[in-house]
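note to self: dont lose this again. the chain is below, predicted strucutre after it. 695 aa total, dont forget to put it in the shared folder this time
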Amino acid sequence: MVDDTLLEYELPAAGYDFQDVTELFQEASSEMEPDNVLFMENFTLQEAMSALEIGEPRLDTGLIVQEQIRPPFQPLTPLLPEELCWILDRAAAYESQFHAGNFLAHTVHTFLYVHHLPYFDSDILVDQTASQKDPARPRELITIVLRPAVQALLKCCDFAWRELARGGAYDTEDWQSDKSEVSLLEGMPVHFILMKLDDGMQWLEQSSVPKRWKDALKARLLLRKTLLQIMSTDPVQNRLEFQTLVFLAKDALRSVQATPPPTECLPDSPAQLAFDPYIGRRLQMAVPIRIITPPSFEETCAFFEHFLNGLYEVGVLETMDQITSWEIVGNLRACVPGSGIHVPYIRSLTQTTFFGGVLILNRHSLEWMLDRFFVESVGVDYEIIKAAVNSRYEGSETGSPFRKVERSLYKLITPHIRALWNNPPRRRRFFMKSLVEWHTLYDALTLIRDDLAVEDLYQGHFLDIFPNIALLWRLSIIREIVLSGFQLELYKNEEKTFAYWYTATVISTHLDCLDGFLLAVVDEESDVYPEMVFQVQFLTALQSLCEALFITTMPLMSLDWERVKLDFFRRYKWAFREEYDDYHTPVVAQPDMSKFLRTCAQILQDGKPAPGHMVDLARLILKDLLESRNVGSWAGPWSGDRRKMIQNLVDVCDNLSAGLPKTADELDAFDARVQLKWDPSVHPWFPSVVGRSVS
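---
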């Protein structure tokens, strides 16, 4: 409390036209007893105390400046057809921003018709008199056309919310679950909204609305109808219906794109009042108001095209009964620039389509998954492997020696496939944690192999090398972990040299495993053989590129070896887990700083090889792979995406080949710190030479 005798110039901010409100607060609190507190709804003592934080952004929520003052919203204000078209497109633009991970209160809920649905229901409104009717602005545009569109929008958000809440995406990380206590029409039947949308399209057909805007509004209602039908249809249980609806939605989207709305409504148009970015002042929310600029019409259409492509891909994936195909697609979505990671809703739907908690793809048991794991890895049925092992098993374990193997695979495969559709950081973290389980599987298979009677078998027989099945998967995961560090821009310049060297080392071990399978196990007539041939060529080219970048980036290394050591153990702590000490089998392809330093010293002593020639070799292998048209056995409908991935690497090779040194003198003059640029939007793993474009 400020003393009454306080002089005016002693007041805080005196001289800035501030007014002393001491008497106002004294009068307001005159009837309160000491230690009493007044509360308002949804504002407790905890909120009051937290608001004392200096700079608390929520304190600004109630501040309304002159520019933000808006007249009361009137949902029955007549609209022109083009104004309604503009409103529907802007609402869809905000919906796209919700799918991008923003709060409903900052996106969909800024659409004021969402909060006034009861006020423009044609079933309860009194008919207008003839004097109130405006032929250019019929009330039916609001009550019969706009209302079901708003209901369908909310219901689509409801289905998206339900799917995301199932756990395939992560609240506050991928999306925001806060509804701000605004209904998403959770209890309204879908068929009722679909019926109302049909009524709206039928009314438009019979109305006097100009043909241009009649077609535009019908296209938007049809797109909203098919989106709602898609999101309410299970892609597994209703496969054909789901895929048909996706094609219908794509046709509707093309119709929408062919009938764009006005570029912008006039400032005095009532359509401008349909959105209030400051609606959060009147909602129950615990975050500051954030003004989100909705994307343009073209950007919104591009989003929904991407959204529908993702839904189409879910429908195609549902038909694939090969777990390797799912793995290929998940990896392609992460590493092909331009394809992007799908919006959280699509990623979550993909995960639940693969495994909903009981059956894989809603039709296969976990035993089926075990068999597919071995068949797709080496072309041999699981039962054949078990029979061969049991006939030669001499271990002390009673019962089937594969019990531990089966437990490990149950814990590994379905989480691994689902993790491919996590966001990139979480995907990487999952892979790092799963490596221990993959080594558990490798150790279990090795222990079985060691207890087999194989003296009479030739060297390289399947029973002698079958533990490498687990090793193939584990080495692929290690490669993804290390290379994803470039995509996520985790590495400092000093760390990049080791990352490329370690990747090349892991690939070398992977190639040794593949060569062993190709020579001794896999039948050339089997489906596995073309996939392994593809992997050998692809990995050989990738190894050559990594070795070239290892040589080129050696000058980026720090000479502070103590700091290098600390950075190494911090970055690769996932490889040095204590659990590995409990296993019988040594861990394969561990990161080894000592070996790395010896390799660097040997290169400096013998002279650095020219990295440009290594890039040329990689390009030659990749071009041969493209010309052979071998994209492996399991790519299926994504063969084109696999070729695009290879072509992207060819483009990288073209850039690096033209810019990287090809002689020792050029290498000495090359400044990697200045001339190499890592940009994940160009390529997620490899840099480009500054001044030379990558097509």
